[in-house]
Amino acid sequence: MHTTLAFPDLLRLLDERSTAFRTAVAAAPSLDVQVPTCPEWTLADLAHHIGEGRRRWAAIVKAGPADGPQPVTAELPEGREAISEWLAESTRQLLDALAEAGPDQGCWTWWGPSQSPPTTGAVARHQLQQLLIHTYDAQLTVGAPHALPAEIAQDGVAEFLTTCCATTGPWPHAPATLDFLTTDAPAWRLTLSAEGAQATTPPPATPPTASVEGTAEEVVLYLHGRNPVTSLKVSGDVKVFGQLEEWEPEV
């Protein structure tokens, strides 16, 4: 059975990853440098995305159950020092909203009928994974990528599959099963069919259509599009992973 990170740990790690992101931005020789893993963005664009996103989710959490996200307008700062201060305040707003709400409050989420609940706890969990990946992006941009913190990466495969993949939208291809095997975290199976996509752990004993294997860090970086599937040990019908990458389910 997979156990997710406790809510206080999610808040602690959100703060730590936010600090690591600001440290990477501060180390950049220029904020106009292109982000290799997000080539349409400069580092300043990425910083603005992070700050705006944390403020938007803070407003969503504060609003509680709702039919849609709360509108948020923020004047984007310019200059390294102003951006750093604005990012720190953005993080504070999100952490304060989450701490006040607690993990079980309902709120709007974009993931709809997935296996992740529409709660502030699930928001905190997803926000941590987003900051994990974008901190990696920022560190890569300044030439100093660090290993992903193990306790976050080890929850990353489960969080991605249950939040970003699980759906009741019908799979448009032949039914398939994909196993995600990690050497340092629980293994998961994603079952794809006309009923949608469902993630389970541990995988059943029946052979999957295809599987990937690596460390939790390696699999998480693949799932978030930072590394190709060929960076992992792949078995079975590899084309199904390509179909999954391109799939945009309609619910």
UniProtKB/TrEMBL annotation:
One of its GO terms (molecular function) is metal ion binding. SUPFAM superfamilies: DinB/YfiT-like putative metalloenzymes. GO terms for cellular component: plasma membrane. Residues 12-139 form the Mycothiol-dependent maleylpyruvate isomerase metal-binding domain. Signal peptide: none annotated. Residues 151-241 form the MDMPI C-terminal domain. NCBIfam families: maleylpyruvate isomerase family mycothiol-dependent enzyme (TIGR03083). PANTHER family: CONSERVED PROTEIN (PTHR40758:SF1). This is Mycothiol-dependent maleylpyruvate isomerase metal-binding domain-containing protein. The lineage of its organism: Bacteria, Bacillati, Actinomycetota, Actinomycetes, Kitasatosporales.
